[in-house]
Amino acid sequence: MEMQKRTPRGQRLVLVPTPYQGHINPMLQLGTFLHSKGFSITIVHTHFNSPSPSNHPEFTFIPIQDGLTVPLVSSGNIIAILLALNANCKASFEQCLTTQVMKQEPGKKITCIIYDEFMYFSEAAANYLNIPSIILRTTSAANFHARSTVVELHSKGHIPFPDSMSSEPVPQLHPLRFKDLPISPWDTLENFLKLVVKSHDVGRSSAIICNTIDCLDQSSLARIQKHCQVPIFCIGPLHKITTAASSSLLEEDTSCIEWLDKQSHKSVIYVSLGSIASIGEKELAEMAWGLANSKQPFLWVIRPGSITGSDWIELLPQEFREAIGERGFIVKWAPQREVLAHGAVGGFWTHCGWNSTLESISEGVPMICKPCFSDQKVHARYVSKVWRLGLELEDEFERGKIERAVRKLMVNSDGEEIRARAKDMKERIQVSMSKGGSNYKRKSELVEFIMALQAVTTAVSSH
Ligand code: UDP
């Protein structure tokens, strides 16, 4: 008898992203993947940084009240905003889910809630309605492990640490030094730890999905797995498992692709500090002259408002603009995945947000790492010292150092090994993602796992 392959047709998943670019992207990419497998996808989101439904007509979008005040949002205190979201959204999410459950058709029940680890209010609502839940972690296993270590070190009285310790290695956390620990620059240490502890608590969730890949993050994953009671599905890089539409909160300037088309193979250094980091006027000038003096073509994303004290690029010196002529191209926001996949791009100066890091690694693009805060410091260290796919610019922004780093990464013979390793890692990721590879298998297992959750819900409701 021929075996009938089970499909999740009609099963509905509710996804709850954290409202920041680096979290919205992987959650919507996961949604696109699960939709391609036959699940119907509902995105429940805050009004703050709400994703654009028009980019994803295949999903249903439902906004919930987030109760954030204008002063809190404009403070930019991400820890305070996330704590407030968890306090404010619990009731509105429960209400939203209850309404959805009441009007659901028998064949189209909500199988599972998949929530970003920082939107942990979702777990309580899922439990209340007896709906299984799964956590999405959008960071690396290395960073997750480092964050857990911060909590542990704090409980032993080692955090906060004195300045004299900042360059000391953290025991069991090679190659991180105390100054690389992912401690948030916003809010108090107590509030930061509160958020970390809550977001690390698996509660009654059935599984964890990680946007990482074992060929990169294996040792940290093994350590995490030891203490975890539920299955962990590493199915990253999520942006590579489907061709998801853009979920950018800012408009992408695609004119940079036409400019890239005119540049020589692997000649361009792409520069972006992500969606949150900002720099001052002095750093801007050092960056600008370092890039100009390197003589390499560059594509530079300068987000409006990301230079302290200016709206956009008013503070860039006039002589710099004259010096670079056509050799540099500046945009407010780029289609980054497309940029990194472009043949003209040979290097990425990044702040080492996890999405940017993964996007670069999966295209074989070596990196200059200039982290600003939190997880970025962990990733910069891993990129430069463990995976050895890039160089870290430590200390202050300085034009001479920047110029030398760009030339080493892009053209000089002493950067050859880094470029070769970057190419090799891209191939290893491709192998893992193709049929028969470990990442490929984990994706199928995840789909099976979620379909099996349906059976649990049905059993619960038919009792
Ligand atoms: N990104 C983009 N265009 C840009 C800059 C960034 O599309 O001009 C995307 C990038 O591809 C990544 C996300 O924004 O997916 C940034 O996330 P990441 O984790 O790298 O850093 P964060 O913004 O959270 O600091």
From TrEMBL:
Keyword Transferase: yes
Domain of life from the UniProt record: Eukaryota
SUPFAM superfamilies: UDP-Glycosyltransferase/glycogen phosphorylase (SSF53756)
Pfam families from the UniProt entry: UDPGT
Organism: Rosa chinensis
Entry keywords, A to Z: Glycosyltransferase, Transferase
Gene Ontology molecular function: any one: quercetin 7-O-glucosyltransferase activity
Enzyme Commission number(s) of this protein: 2.4.1.-
Family of the protein in this entry: Belongs to the UDP-glycosyltransferase family.
Name listed for the protein in its UniProt record: Putative hexosyltransferase
Coiled-coil ranges per UniProt: none
